[in-house]
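Case 376 in the screening queue. Each case pairs one protein sequence with one candidate compound; here the compound is beta-D-glucopyranose. For every case the pipeline is the same: read the inputs, emit a complex structure as tokens, and attach any notable structural observations.

Predict complex for case 376.
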Amino acid sequence: MSRTKKFLALAATGIFALSLASCATGGESTDGGGGDAGATATECNVGISMPTRSLERWINDGEQLKSLLEEADCTVDLQYADNKTDQQISQIQNQVAGGSKILVVAAIDGQVLAPVLAEAKAQDATVIAYDRLINGTEDVDYYATFDNYKVGQLQGEFLETELDLANATGPISLEPFAGSPDDNNAKFFFSGAWDVLLPYVESGVLVVPSGQSPASNDDWASIGIQGWASDKAQSEMDNRLSSFYTGSDTVDVVLSPNDSLAIGIIASLKSAGYTPGADYPLITGQDADKANVQAILAGEQAMTVWKDTRTLGEQVFTMIQEIVAGDEVTVNDTETYDNGEKVVPSYLLDPEVVVEADVQTKLIDSGFIQASDVGL
Ligand code: BGC
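Case 376 output:
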């Protein structure tokens, strides 16, 4: 953390401690002037519901937010749901029954949480959708995430630049993948990338030999990989390679929306005999997971979109402080994330591209990963 950030975090914690003290002594709500009319101070009892421990990023997300909150003397219940929707629902029910007044939920399936959130609302809980939007309910108060459309746009623009698509004649063979159909983020990732790439598919500069080429952004789920599973991405890539790349045909580019899919795609390419070098395809990713950073260093993956999840944790911590104090919650987007029932006030953070040359300067120097984690 930079010195300024550390100072801000500590200063914020101080303010927070004061507002907590006022709660404990039955003090009035600390509406700092700009607050929502009628907002009252809330007990800092937080239930955090994360989708799975199987992906590095969610472990980091959960642990970091938990420790920020515990340093500020909040009560925290952190649960992981093994990517199982029913488990996530019953964990949230238990958190509400156990007294959580603020819920931070990274939904496994963004479509099915309305009933459990209605139960939470009946107990006056405030709900923050974390990273992934929750759809079809009035009962989600805020959303904090990275700019999901921009994640895809960065992937698309990276490929456009690397392949000089604006001047290329092609045909360059592309295999596109999309994320889990139940994750609201996946359509934003795909739309961001496809808005850049589809014109080149339409003009024939890019060709998709497998035919897995959505005609519009709305068809993205047809190439979605359920649960963001590496093994499912691997078998899908195996099928495409064995059915559509025969003889001397090779794939030049794979649009992978995130790192867990990229891992499966890389494994598939390896078993089909592809080795890093001039003829190896460009593969995109997202998250800067350690295994993928190693793949970038080994020339097996071209880039990842890095979302510094520490900043997301800090932003959600800030939101929680504001809720606890009864202050107005800071958001920077009130237009993009319509969940079907309301436009959820959101705070969007900026993702950024990481290629091999950035591993040291962006990921290691900032402390996001250690050099030893990636064999440096
Ligand atoms: C997150 C990505 C992650 C994916 C799989 C998405 O909702 O935004 O960072 O790679 O889920 O867990």
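Case 376 observations:
- Residues 1-38 have pLDDT under 50 and may be disordered.
- The two ends are 22 Å apart (CA to CA).
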